[in-house]
Structure formats: C-alpha cells, structure tokens
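From the pipeline queue, job 12 of 40. The input is one protein chain; the requested action is below.

Action: predict structure.
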Amino acid sequence: MTAALLLAALGAEAAGFGASGVGATAGGFLSLGAGARAIGMGGAYSAAADEASALYWNPGAMTMVPRRSATFMHAAYVASSYYDYASYVQNAGPYGAFGLGLQYFSAGSVDQTDENFSPLGSVTPYDLAASAGYAYKFERGFSLGASAKFIQSKLTQTANTAALDLGLLWPGLIDDRLRLAFTAQNLGGTLKYDQAKESLPMAFKAGAAFRITPNWLAALDAAAPRNDSPYLNLGTEYLLAAGDWWRFAGRAGFSTQDLRPAVGIGIGGGAMSVDYAFVPYNYLGDVHRVSLTFSF
C-alpha cells in the first residue's frame, strides 16, 4: 500500500469507519457529518436540523430555514488532513426550499512508494461532493426533500460517481414540541478505482427531536448503514440567553456506532452563530470542528 492510500485510510478511520464496520465501502468522507452544532449533539440531527446543514442531514428539513441560511465548517484531522463543508439554503415559501452544498476532505501532501518502498514522489489524495437539493412542505404539515450529489475521489487514481439523498420531516407534533424524520443517504453510485468497484456508505435513518422546555432540546437518530451494524446517535442542547442579543448553547452527544462521546458549545448574536465541537479519537488524535452559521 502506498503512503497515500494509508493516510486516506487513516482519515476514514478517524471518522469512525473501519473501526466497527463489517464490510467495506468507499467515499467514507460522505458520512463525516456537517456543522459543529450537529456534531456536538452526537450526530443526532436528522429531525433537529433548522439551518443550512439540513441539506446534508435531511433535505426535507430545509423547509425549517426561516428565510436564508449559510453554514461554513472546518475540521482538522490526523497529520495534515482536514475536512471542510459549506452550504446555502433559501426558503422560497410556497415554492419550497432550495440548497447547495460542498464537502471536501484532503489527506494532505504525502510521499508515495512502490512495493519495494522506493520513492515515487508525492501525491495529494482528496474527496469532494457537490450537492443541490429541493424540499417542499405539504398542506398536511410534512416536508419531503431530495438532494443530488456529484462525487469525486482521488487516491492514486480518480473516480467519479453520483448519488441521491432523500428526506422526510414531520414537525409540529405534540404542541409543536416534537419532530419526526426519515432519511436515506448516498443512494446509488459506485466508485471505481482501476478494476475495483466500491459502493458508497448508504444509510437509512429514523430520527426524532423533542423540545423538553423552550431552551432544552433532546434528539435521537436510529441508523441502519450499508455493511455495518445498526446504531444510535443521541444528543442534547441547552440554550441560555444573555440579555436581548447574545445566546449561549451547551451540547453533548453519544454514538453507539463507535462508543464515542461528543461535546460542543455555541455562541450567537443577531444573525450569526459560532459553534465548536470536540470528539476524541484516541491514538488518532482528537478532532476539533468550528463552524459559522448565518441567517439572513
């Protein structure tokens, strides 16, 4: 294995892949998550999403964006690898909601060797996905959404494919305190390197978000991924207002997929919020995520 392939594998394992999987998939970066708020809640976000990262978590939830929202996130991984995410969602009222998004994972510049460990120069493996989505809210109150994505992955060779995400959100239950969600992510498409074809990390999720008090939110996602055992993501968020302008948030979550906790904080004022999430990854190092979200 070349050093490039090794570092790409480490990047995938840092995201929780390979540690508990019972089979192999390609494009593991597609499951890295989006937005520090969601990650701080342990990834339990398919029913809780209400800003631009809804395009990633549940395209049906894009109708929960009041007007327009943009999210930008950066996460530093092992060695010089990193992961970036950006999305924009606009609610067009009776015409539905539209969204655009971009995911990019870079393994950094690494040395490449042959089977005899002779140097072959350096290579920069990367993965990217560009998404476009649409959601519509029906008179019965539920929303349906879909997101199409173009995916490109470069190790020592480049592979391209396409995939589809589908999402349903049913808000307004129990006096507007409960939301229910269902999503299907990374449907279709395979990445082909040379003669080998690998499937994408397809997953089906059912989620719920319940507002215990006006400032306290609890969320749960039950996931059934391709080539892995079913798992649960649990998360919570508590908001604390500071005057008429500033608000603070404390978050915590846990995933049974890799038995890994997550914590996060957020601070917001007016139309902007800054969020931070921390996830420990043992010998691979800790992962810190920072995101900016704008609502306008």
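Job complete. The CA atoms of residues 213 and 248 lie 16 Å apart.
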